[in-house]
Design a protein that fits this description.
Elements lengths: L6 E5 L3 H12 L3 E5 L8 H9 L3 E3 L12 E4 L8 H8 L3 E4 H8 L3 E6 L4 H13 L5 E5 L5 H4 L8 E5 L2 H4 L9 E4 L7 H4 L2 H9 L10 E5 L14 E5 L7 E5 L2 E6 L2 E7 L8 H16 L4 H10 L8 E6 L2 E5 L6 H10 L4 E5 L12 H7 E6 L4 H8 L4 E4 L3 H11 L5 E4 L12 H19 L1
Helix pairs in contact: 5-10, 5-11, 15-16
């Protein structure tokens, strides 16, 4: 698209919106950024906007936002919010920052979505690409916003993107060469309303693909088994063989292409552990093979990848007690896999802003593995009501306080696990901020304990 001299409104002053405004300004457009939040919260954003001579407003959306033919929205803005529905009623085209990046990108796109495992799988794919001859860049919901780096991706290069449902709400022509849905479990129902809407948004990642593209699905996921009509379909499985894709059998990963089965790697050689990470590894293998990467490079990447920060991250030991940072576990299913991956007894720190999660699905696992449950944040009352008769429940006013309580309750060789099952926005900027606060609390506790 030619954006020269076009009036374009950008909704949201967080990372994606700010990046979109700057990119559009550099393309010769006339962006106007509108942010509902107070100006005091966006000091750095205001400095950037001033530097690039970009018009803006904070503290609410005025009618100035409708003086445009195109509106770019940040993922944090719900699709049914008044500013976007009014724009549509005025025949203003609304696109996401992800869509803007795609329209600026001259290379190939590999996109990863799912309820859990997106960051790990996206990062693992990036690691595998680094062992191949293909040039690639990891962006999207992880690292840099796509639009900020899209123009630097050449025709033979790959953009490896972590993609959320929020970003997929307003796509138009977004068409990944390779796309994968890792899994679908209840998440963000506070925003999407019900599972049907949530599943439809996840599958939207395939909506513009055709037979020349590659659509990869989890053959073990009940919510994905029915979608046989998707073109270019590949699968991955840890429970059985698949005709086209990657599967685990007899402690080995295999790749099947056109009936030809190849050994990829012994599962024991894969650095990241746990059943959920085995599924992530299978997905990554299927994606990378579809992108044309050879088995040797895939094998090397699986061996060298060390995992991602804030996802079952081993922080350290104090007096024999292991501290694990799983701040990225923002939904119930992520906590399920976290508890499956650690030894009991566990002191679990949970809570935050509820996303309409069904915490009761964790009841038996909490009964089996969690000796103490330390709760923080807005969802503490709801979580306590579920688990008060299942395990010992303790309330804390802060994450630092929760870490101290958890250490006191952890027995010899115990585990303190931060795996919140909730969003972080009641107390922190994002899950990274929460994870860093957990690690800071660990370091302070370690200083006074030694």
């Amino acid at each position: 698209m030619d954006f020269s001299d076009q009036k374009i409104s950008v909704i949201g002053a967080a990372r994606s919106g700010l990046a979109a405004a700057v990119v559009l300004k550099n393309l010769g457009a006339e962006p106007f950024l509108s942010e509902h939040g107070p100006e005091s919260k966006y000091t750095e954003a205001k400095e950037t906007l001033t530097k690039y001579d970009i018009r803006y407003e904070f503290g609410g959306h005025s009618d100035r936002v409708y003086d445009c033919r195109l509106m770019v929205t940040s993922p944090g803005v719900p699709a049914d919010t008044e500013i976007l529905t009014t724009a549509v009623s005025k025949n203003i085209k609304v696109i996401s920052e992800l869509e803007l990046g795609f329209q600026l990108c001259g290379g190939k796109v590999l996109a990863v979505t799912g309820s859990n495992g997106k960051t790990t799988t996206t990062s693992l794919i990036g690691e595998i690409f680094s062992h191949s001859r293909l040039n690639s860049l990891v962006a999207g919901n992880i690292g840099n916003p796509f639009c900020a780096v899209a123009r630097g991706i050449g025709i033979d290069d790959w953009a490896i993107l972590e993609v959320s449902t929020f970003q997929l709400e307003w796509i138009d022509k977004f068409k990944p060469r390779v796309a994968v849905v890792l899994n679908i479990t209840p998440d963000h129902l506070d925003r999407h309303g019900n599972m049907e809407n949530y599943i439809a948004l996840k599958l939207k990642i395939f909506s513009n693909q055709n037979g020349t593209d590659n659509a990869i699905l989890n053959a073990d996921d009940e919510n994905l088994k029915a979608f046989d009509s998707i073109s270019g379909k590949h699968e991955f499985s840890t429970a059985g063989e698949v005709d086209n894709g990657c599967f685990a059998r007899d402690n080995t990963l295999y790749l099947c292409r056109k009936g030809n089965i190849q050994r990829v790697i012994d599962i024991s050689e894969i650095t990241i552990k746990g059943p959920h990470n085995l599924a992530n590894a299978c997905a990554a293998v299927a994606c990378c093979a579809a992108a044309g990467i050879d088995i040797e490079s895939i094998n090397a990447g699986l061996k060298s990848f060390q995992g991602v920060e804030h996802r079952l991250e081993q922080v350290g030991l104090i007096g024999g007690v292991s501290f694990i940072n799983d701040s990225k576990a923002t939904n119930v299913d992520a906590v399920y896999w976290a508890l499956q991956s650690v030894f009991s007894p566990v002191v679990l720190i949970a809570g935050g802003r509820d996303k309409d999660g069904d915490f009761s699905t964790l009841t038996e696992l909490v009964r089996e593995k969690v000796s103490n449950l330390v709760l923080i944040g807005e969802a503490a009352d709801k979580i306590e009501s579920v688990f008060k008769d299942v395990t010992r429940v303790i309330r804390a006013d802060s994450l630092e306080g929760a870490v101290g309580i958890a250490y006191e309750k952890a027995g010899p060789d115990g585990v303190v696990l931060l795996s919140p099952a909730c969003a972080s926005f009641d107390m922190f900027d994002d899950f990274e901020h929460r994870g860093e606060a957990f690690k800071q609390a660990f370091n302070m506790l370690k200083e006074v304990s030694e």
